[in-house]
Amino acid sequence: xxxxxIILSRLxxxxxxLFGLVFVVFFISxxxxxxxxxxVAGENATExxxxxxxxxxxxxxxxxxxxxxxxxxxxxxDLGKSLYTQRAISEDLLHRLPATLELTTAAMIIAIGLxxxxxxxxxxxxxxxxxxxxxxxxxxxLAVASFWLAMELxxxxxxxxxxxxxxxxxxxWGPDEITGFYVIDSILSGDWxxxxxxxxxxxxPAITLALPAAATLVRFTRAGVLEVINSNFVLYERAMGxxxxxxxxxxxxxxxxxxxxxxxxxIFGTLFAGAVVVEAVFDWPGLGTYAVQSILQSDTKAILGFxxxxxxxxxxxxxxxxxxxxxxxxxxxx
Amino acid sequence: xxxxxxxxxxLSLGFRGxxxxxxxxxxxxxxxxxxxxxxxxxxxxxxxxTLASAILGVLPRHALxxxxxxxxxxxxxxxxxDHGAQQQAARGRRVTFIPQDPFTSLNPVFTIGQQIEExxxxxxxxxxxxxxxxPALLSRYPRARRKADRAKVIEMLDLVQLPRxxxxxxxxxxxxxxxQRQRLMIAMAxxxxxxxxxxxxxxxxxxxxxxxxxxxxxxxxxxxxxVAVMLTTHDLGSAYEICDRITVMYAGQDVEAAPVAEFFxxxxxxxxxxxxxxxxxxxxxxxxxxxxxxxxxxPPPGCRFQTRCPRATEACRxxxxxxxxxxxHVVRCAHPLFxxxxxxxxxx
Amino acid sequence: MSPLKRLLADRAASIGAAIIAGLIxxxxxxxxxxxxxxxxxxxxxxxxxxxxxxxxxxxxxxxxSDVFSRILFGARITITIALIAVGVxxxxxxxxxxxxxxxGGFPGGFLMRTSDVFLAVPQxxxxxxxxxxxxxxxxxxxxxxxxxxxxxxxxxxxxxTRALKSQTFIxxxxxxxxxxxxxxxxHILPNTASAIIVRxxxxxxxxxxxxxxxxxxxxxxPPPTPEWGRTISEAREYLPEAxxxxxxxxxxxFLVVMGFNLLGDGLRDILDPKLRKGRR
Lengths: 334, 348, 280
Description:
By secondary structure, chain A is mostly helical. Helices cover about 75% and strands about 0% of the residues of chain A.
């Protein structure tokens, strides 16, 4: 079947790309002369203690041997131990992944809910006042630094107005952990107070994160609709007296979505990238804050692990987008 | 004689563009009677597609400027924005459309069945007239009518000689051939039981070998049902074969209209005569008239053919009135090739 | 119309060009136009955290230094980072894309798969990983950004080269005995120039945002460098009272990125007729 073929051809590249990513990040992170053993051993350790630790961590081996070990460990899901938390990095990351995925998913939903309709309206009412406003806003949305926007919104809505919580993911203990996705968990356990609290906490970070993504979506949707709106099949549908709203929101949008959907992988990337700094501002206990803490601790292995897990998620999202594409555009299966 | 089905009177319109105002249609006139097949003939760029688009209401709105004239379809003003709802209701139901390019005129991401179903949901002759309430996206398709419509669809697909209609409906447009798609467009044009089909060069995008088949099919089905067809074409040969009457346009003006036999026997406008002279034996294109189409940005006043016409004089600088060169044979020329009588005399 | 005239006729693009021209001018003239040029390093603790006034246009920071003067000097760092990082990315990406697109086959595939590896994570993640291991400094930020952004140009030039290679005029040049290098440099490269220019303008904006984020995370130049991202992170503890402290560098970033994006959009409309229809 054609669809299976497409999926398999993408999957084939999954492992080599990931391997390449590990290779690149690993070697870059090993060209520098910092000595993790010394950091772990502490400042008062003797040279002998540091040497012993170095041998224990495998740092006395040639770099290719170290790389080989790292990859071998990686294959079993072992990313090494965090210098800072003293826990397995894979455990730390997996524990924090749901928080980031939940935040980025919420942001994605907001971005789509905002970006698609505005993009369509902007294209349909081309050069009108609303189009001008939407276009200025979308160019602005792409130009604003998300960490700065996060700080300003936090200052205004949380500190000044007190409408939203200052930071964190939940006020109390949160819902019983089942999946790690608090929204899902609180629904599963019927804990409506928690659900409200979780959503309340999520609101501002998710909006902050969503705005640049929405701006990208507006631009692609607008361009997509403008391209489709002058095509012959729209002319035919108009000539045959189809209701105008139906033509735009069903027939034009569906076609315009094809180019937009291919951008969703990219948009997901910007969301993940934005999450690193936005999480740091809102103290959201996800991968982003973990990465920032690891930076502060010079925890190279944790950063490496973080890059790899983001790479896995990112490649997986792009794979999903490719699969989605085969459903939304029948011509890909030709 | 009964009232004409469609009249276009003195239609003048054009588009604002970078180079100024492009005056595409300049006092264009056209009449169509019920049940007749009328060929609207002219070179590419003569305004025939613009005229068809004006009737269908699909001219690009943002640069359009209508400077005068009217289009009446069975008493309904098809041009004024005041009658938007009635025009919307008439289009696709009483006036349908066969597009020029069947390859790009179907929506590529919906199946053929979905698109026909949508058409029938809104334009089926079994649908109660009157405006629909509520948002179009949420509107329902009553089950009983859907079933009746579907039977008609299958029957119609058979009539246009499309094999295995059931399977065809499940396919996407890119999965069927151009000829089949154009049969489909004919079926979709006939399904709402219209009074008028506007077919805009329906065969130019197709192989020469199937052009005649498609036109023949269109003619037979339309004649059987008493549907009028306005066929725009630059191919005099096919116009001769299937039309009852022909209207010739040149650079946005109608120059001559006549029943098909009269048209070929007594071409009265110099342009028509040149057209027929340039026709190679057995039909074909239109080449061999010296000169070029005048610029739409700065057209000559009066008859626009004067720049290429061997008989042109100072009199041609005002647009000649319509005169009769025979029964139902109208021509607008100050120096016709055959005798003509003034409009009023014949009518009186 | 000449491209320059068309650029000036496009309102958005000319605003963008004006912003960038202003930025470059400010960066060059910073020592002369800044009211307190010594405040890049000097501090006056008695005047710390003063709100905007006639003497301090954007107020003062936690060290009592003039925020406005520091913003002006920050423009130098921003423009230096962006120009060099994008320059290096172009210098790496364009030849790789050109060679991969021209020769195709295994080496071309290998080069493009390598660029895929760099695109497999969001740019800031890779930049964080690289900058973190290299240590905080302007040079390392530039290196990290160059290593992360080159694939964008490689992919772009690769796609354009593939499309151009099958064109008649390239085949004609080859048939006339032109060498591969000659065809690549004299025939293909000039035809990809428009796309490269557009991408570069938009890439400048993206690079500036990423550089600022690195600065914010403490991976940029060390203090007391007046880097915008770092200034915002410094200002964080003084919110909401000292609102001007974070607002000024944030708006500066916004303005500059906006300038490059507007110019990029305008250039696309002017240089790339295929995409021009998208905006109307």
